[in-house]
Amino acid sequence: MSASTAVLKAESRLFAREPGSLFWVLAFPSLLLLAIGLIPAYRQADPSLGGNRVIDVYVPSVVLVALITASVLSMPGALTTYRERGILRRMRTTPARPAHLLIAQLVLHAVAAMLGAVLAIVAGRVVWAVALPEQLLAYGITLLLATLAGLATGAVITALARTAKAAQAIGLAVFFPSMFAAGIYVPIQVLPDTVRRIIELLPFGAAAQALNQAASGSWPAWTHLAVLALWTVVLMGVAARWFRWE
After folding, report:
1. Where are the domains of the chain?
2. How many CB atoms lie under 10 A from the CB of residue 137?
3. pLDDT at 159
4. Which residues lie closer than 8 Å to 194 by C-beta, 6 or more apart?
5. Burial bucket for residue 102 (CB in 10 Å: 0-12, 13-18, 19+)
6. Which of 45, 147, 181, 191 could form a disulfide with 205 if both were Cys (CB 3.0 to 4.6 A apart)?
7. Over 60: is that where the pLDDT of 1 sits?
8. Distance between CA 82 and CA 55 in Å, rounded?
9. What is residue 191's three-state secondary structure?
């Protein structure tokens, strides 16, 4: 327990000294939401969105940006760098173990993603008067499941990438489709039904739909929650199978 705590404290200090990760995970989602709200048409009620404003339906999507960035870019880059430099191998000669480092990274990026999500919600409320989620419990459960699915995705990238550059390349290849599935480029509500049904089978697509439902006061469809849980189990299994310390 003392070794794992020491690793977590050390990794927390190192993470706090990474301005790039702090910006993209904590600040960028809120800044993106503020920029979207600067478009006047996005602050007006839209009949095609059930009377909601575009900025209202964008908040759940922007919340997922923090999670996507932390999961598929930040965490794989950190872990593959440690592996590439032989740090994981050398840790086996100390009381700490590579597993402690892996757990510390998962915890740190989960907390950072959650904090980035909360900051985006607060920014939307304070600046653009976006209503807070009506189903807070459902919103929290969905965000937790989305975090687990996102970290599982990052774990697979870490397992497959041999170097930090490879992790960055794979992460970017996953990042942009994930942003589309989350509804950043085009709101999910305006997509054709066929495209929307396909997106709902992806982890961040299901998460975006579930968060929108919870925000509007409805309990998320169980199919969306099941998709998130299934992706988490499958991806964690793949990561455990292919992950190497060296």
Report:
1. 2-242
2. 10
3. 93
4. none
5. buried
6. 181
7. no
8. 40
9. coil
CA 144, CA 66: separation in Å to the nearest integer? 13
Q: What are the structure tokens assigned to 45, written together?
A: 């009620």
Q: How many residues does the chain have?
A: 246
Which residues lie below 8 Å from residue 186, measured CB to CB, with a gap of 6+? 180
In this structure, the number of other CB atoms found within 10 A of the CB of residue 138 comes to: 20
Residue 52 CB-density burial (10 A; 0-12 exposed, 13-18 middle, 19+ buried): buried
Please provide residue 162's backbone torsions phi and psi, each rounded to the nearest 5 degrees. Answer: -85, -30
Q: pLDDT at position 234, please?
A: 97
DSSP symbol at 53: B
Separation CA 15–CA 18 (nearest Å): 5
**Token digits for 179?**
């942003």
pLDDT for 199-210, tens place per residue?
Answer: 999 999 999 999
Contact of 172 with 92, CB cutoff 8 Å: no
Pairwise CA distance, residues 198 & 67, whole Å: 21
- Give the mean model confidence (pLDDT) for residues 44-71: 89
- Taking the C-alpha atoms of residue 233 and residue 43, their distance in angstroms, rounded to an integer, is 39
Give me the pLDDT at residue 170, please: 96
